[in-house]
Amino acid sequence: MKQTPVSQAEFQAAREATGPAPVPLWQILRRRRVDPLERWSRIRAEHGPVARYRFGLSDSYLLSSAEAVQRVLQDNPGGYSKHHPTYAMLRRVFGNGLLTSEGDFWLRQRRLAQPAFHRPRLQRMGEAMAAAAQEAAARWDEAASRGEPVTMLREMSRVTLKVVGDALFGAALRADSAAMAGAWDVLNAQLSERHAQMRLLPPVLPTAYDRTFRHARRTLLGVVERIITERRGRGAGGGDLLTILMEARDEDTGESMTDGQLRDEVVTILLAGHETTATALAWTWVLLDHHPAAAAALRAELDRVLQGRPPAAADLPQLPYARAVIDEAMRLQPPAYILNRRVEADDVVCGFRVHRGGSIVISPLVLHRHPAYWKQPDAFVPERWDGEAAEERRPKFAYLPFSGGPRQCIGNHFALMEATLILTTLAQRFEVRCVDGYVPKPEYLVLCRPSEGAPMRLERRRARATRVEEAAPA
Known about the structure:
Helix content is 53%, strand content 11%. The protein is α+β, with helices and mostly antiparallel strands and 474 residues long.
């Protein structure tokens, strides 16, 4: 990965960044809770695009301008690494997959995996995405008939796990999807707790807490390893992502991925892929309920374009407002709300010194609400995404739902197609309301999730149901 280092003279000529008072280790260990959006926004306002402060035992640099983020993620990515405590914890689950690997190994794995996510393949996956959304709609019909509320994050996680599982494995994962989801819930919660409490030791102690982590990890990896072994046993074949990854060959050496490498990449795609999209969709439903004009505009577009038939991948270019709703939800509530890097060499960012050994903190939460880049930054306004010119009105690195630069998420187009198909399929048939008394708040775990999983009520759209019945064959 390229590196564009600064000279010693340039480094000495730069300014030292200022910042807030240190966060001492005792406050971290006592689980002092601070709203990160409020804290980071205040730091940005008081200290500018690069702020330096002490967090526990290390120096942190909060970058809160698009120019600063571009320097780290794109212009000088070789000067920064993922040798950071956050990624050390993630490796305990994801192994050395694309999310956590580094250097030449990461580049090789990225090149091997990239063909699996080319747009023509994604278009062929659209049919499976639409089918999974229709299955979810059938479940919602039953829940609506019973008048039962649903936990929206669980509902979205269920459908996105099916989409990603089917894309990876065909039908092989379906019998194990509940066990996989339960294992991930345990690992997700513990990863967040361990990071917040600076529990840096691996989970090897004979405590109930560590045993629970190890059991969940064994469950998760065991399912993936079994499917890989079975697929190896019967030979190649099929068009799913696992087959593509198994058949990929390094252009220089002709080597393929080992079973261990396959396992790490599959776990990364499976978990990072389904949970991020599920979280984005859960926030989308909450935001639509709180902004009825936007919900009405979405339904009007669906009725006008689809005329009562279910959406397909080919319809998405004609549904720009639906995509804008997704983009705006990820702007206000980005699931991946923090990106970390370790400074590997002294650098200058926006005229400020960034010292080797420090920790970089990049928060899409702050960038996505920066008043220099967004009008009405705290408002939910899908219309701001209208037209191609919308992308030209803001710096590229002001919007980072999938990170940026060479380490941008390999599955971003997959996730956007999946989210839009699920949203349009369900919004066409249902109106969704937060249960009475529910006040959504962000929960900052591995991802930023809506509190309590977003409990919501489902109501059928009567006009939509009538059109389907009239269109149905005799």
